[in-house]
Design brief:
alpha+beta, SH3 type barrels, six-stranded antiparallel beta sheet, three-stranded mixed beta sheet, 5 helices, 9 strands, 24% strand, globular
């Protein structure tokens, strides 16, 4: 897909900033169907070219954050001859540097901006681990009838990926839930989107 196609999925006032970041010749950006395990990814090929894939979502703020996250991977890879930790200090510093011009309320709404600015002090491998940021971003998602798992009462049933689970309780940061059919227990993030039964 042509890189400029991504411009229609981001906030209008971020377009010029993004144009400057994606003008690299050896970079392809593809928009793909939603994957459940990731919002985007970065790959470098043997021939020296690079590719970013981004999930097709309607939340322009989440889309922009994911794009900058993956562009940081691209920059780290481009500027180094050595293999780096995927979300190590080089990536964190690059991500912060790339995100800085976007951290203003002409691009992000105040409720997202405050959480994003806090997140960027020490960005993690995924925004999904930052519960406050996920909740703020979710106000701009289309959820149909889904809710966050933390809104489901203990001992209640819910559906996730066409499977039925019972929420049992909390273990540190995650919830223990039991698959009703398999009778196995799993750990879920509090901000997993589920359907109440």
């Amino acid at each position: 897909m042509i890189k400029n196609e991504v411009l229609k999925y981001i906030p209008k006032l971020s377009v010029n900033l993004v144009k400057n970041l994606i003008k690299e010749e050896n970079l392809t950006i593809k928009i793909v169907e939603i994957r459940k395990t990731k919002h985007g990814d970065f790959k470098k090929f043997v021939n020296g070219s690079s590719q970013i894939t981004l999930n097709l979502i309607e939340n322009k703020y989440r889309f922009l954050i994911t794009l900058i996250h993956e562009l940081a991977h691209f920059r780290v890879n481009k500027n180094s001859n050595f293999k780096k930790a995927p979300h190590g200090s080089e990536w964190k510093n690059t991500y912060k540097l790339l995100m800085l011009p976007f951290l203003n309320n002409t691009i992000f709404p105040d409720n997202v901006l405050s959480k994003l600015a806090k997140h960027m002090k020490n960005p993690s491998a995924t925004t999904d681990s930052d519960i406050d940021l996920v909740i703020s971003l979710s106000k701009y998602d289309k959820h149909n009838d889904s809710v966050f798992l933390f809104d489901v009462l203990n001992e209640s049933l819910f559906e996730f990926n066409n499977q039925t689970y019972k929420k049992i309780g909390k273990l540190r940061k995650r919830y223990i839930c039991k698959d009703i059919i398999k009778n196995k227990k799993y750990l879920f993030s509090p901000v997993t989107r589920v359907k109440k039964i």
